[in-house]
Amino acid sequence: MSDQRTDEEKLDALIDFLGDSIFEASDEEIREEFRMSGVDPDTEAVRLKRMMLNAVKAFRQRAITTSREAYDDRITHLETKHYSIPNTPEERRKLFSFISQQPQSAPYVTAQYRDLKDPTDNDIESYLKDLDDLGLLDKLLHDSSDEK
Amino acid sequence: MTEYSSRRVPDELAATPDEIEAAITALTPGEWLKLKRYADWRIGALGRNTDGWTGDRLLLAAVTGTRRWNKKNVDFKGFLYGAIRSISSNRARSCKKQRPAAPEADFREENEEGELFSPLDNAQAPGPSPEQQVNATQTLDLIEDLLKDDEKALRVLVAWREDFSPAEVRELESLSQKEYNAIKIRIYRRARAANFAATYDKRGS
To answer: Is the minimum CB–CB distance between B131 and chain A shorter than 8 Å?
Structure first.
C-alpha cells in the first residue's frame, strides 16, 4: 500500500471521515452526547429550529425593507421631479398640438397617442411628461426652432 | 449523504422562503442535533482560525448565505450538510494559503456564476509548513493514543492512516458495515471528548 498523503492531508481527511460518522449515529446516541455535555437535547433542538426560523424571517424582512426603500425612493423621485412642461392644461394642449404636427416628432408619437381623437388633459400631460422623462421634449422643441 | 453542488441554482429551481421555512419545521429534533454537532465539529477542526465563528453561526450561514437550495437535487438536510462542509472547508483552505492567517470578513465568496471560491484559490499553494506537518503528525499520534484501550478502533485508524480505503479496512479487519460505522463513531467521540480543537490549535499557523 503506497503512502502518498502527507499527515496534514490525512488529518483533513480524518476530520471529514469522523464528521460524517455523526450522521451514521442513531438519534438516541446523539441525544445522549448532548446530555453528557450538560445540554438538554429537546431544549436544544427547539432552540435550533427557532433560531433558523428567525433567520428566515429576518431574511424576508430584509427583502421587504429593501423593496420598500426602493419604492419610497421612486415615489419621492416622482413627487419631487420637476417637469419642463406648461403649467396649465390649455398651454399643454397647445404644446401637444404643436409637437404632434412636427415631422421630426413622428417616431416619438406612439400609437397610443396618435390614435387619440380627442386626448384628455391627463393624456396630454402624461405624454409630455413621458417625452420630458426621455429627454425628448427639449430636443423636439430645439429641432423645431432650428428648422424655422 | 448527497454532495452539495456549488453551481448556482437557477431562480426557477431555487427553493422559496416558504419552502425553506417548511423544511426547517419538518426536520426532526434528532436531525437538528446532528446538524449542530456536525457544525460544531467542523468549526472545532479549524482550531484557532475560527475567527469568532461558532457552530450556530455556521449553521445560520448555511441557510442565509448565498447558497440556494435546489430541492429537486437534494433534501434540506443534505443541503445544509453540504453547505456546512463547503463553508468550513473553504475557510480551512484559505487559512492554509495565508501564513500567517489573515482575518476575513466571511468564509467564502461567490462569483457571478454562483461558484464559491476563495480569493486565494488561484494562488500558488505553498504546501504545509514543516510546523504544520509536525502538528498534523502529533495530532494523529494523539488520536491514536486516545484509542490505546480500544484495539479495534486503533487498528481501523492505523489502517486508515496507512491509506487503506474504507472497503479495504473493513476487509482487512473483517468488519461489517455496521461494525465499521460503530467504530467510526467511537473514534469521533474520543477525539471530540479529548477537546480535539485544542489539540489541533496550531492548525493554519
So the answer is: no
What pLDDT is attached to residue B179? 92
Closest residue of chain B to A9, computed from CA coordinates? B136
Partner-chain contact B35 A48, CB within 8 Å? yes
DSSP 8-class letter at B4 = P
Chain A interface mutation, best of B21, B188, B196, B202, highest count of A Cβ atoms under 10 Å: B188
CB neighbour burial string for A107-123, b if at least 16 within 10 angstroms, e if fewer = ebbeeebeeeeebeeee
Q: What are phi and psi of B204, to 5 degrees?
A: 85, -5
Whether the pLDDT of residue A14 is over 60: the answer is yes
Return d(Cα A84, Cα A105) in angstroms, integer.
17
Q: Cβ separation of A44 and B189 shorter than 8 Å?
A: no
Q: Does A25 touch chain B (CB under 8 A)?
A: yes
Location of C-alpha cell 458495515: B177
Give the start-to-end residue ranges of the domains of chain B. Answer: 17-117, 130-199
Show residues of chain A in contact with B35, CB under 8 Å. 48
Three-state DSSP at B72 gives coil
* pLDDT digits 0-9 by tens, B121-137: 544 445 667 777 777 88
Question: Which letter does DSSP use for residue B5 in this model?
Answer: P
Q: How far apart are CA A117 and CA A97, in angstroms?
A: 12
ipTM of the prediction: 0.71
pTM to 2 decimals?
A: 0.64
How many Cβ atoms from other residues are within 10 Å of residue B58's Cβ? Answer: 27
Omega within 30 of 0 (cis) for the link into B100: yes
CA pair distance B119, B122, nearest whole angstrom: 7
Q: Decide: helix, strand or coil at residue B109.
A: strand
Q: Which residues pair with B70 in a beta bridge?
A: B14
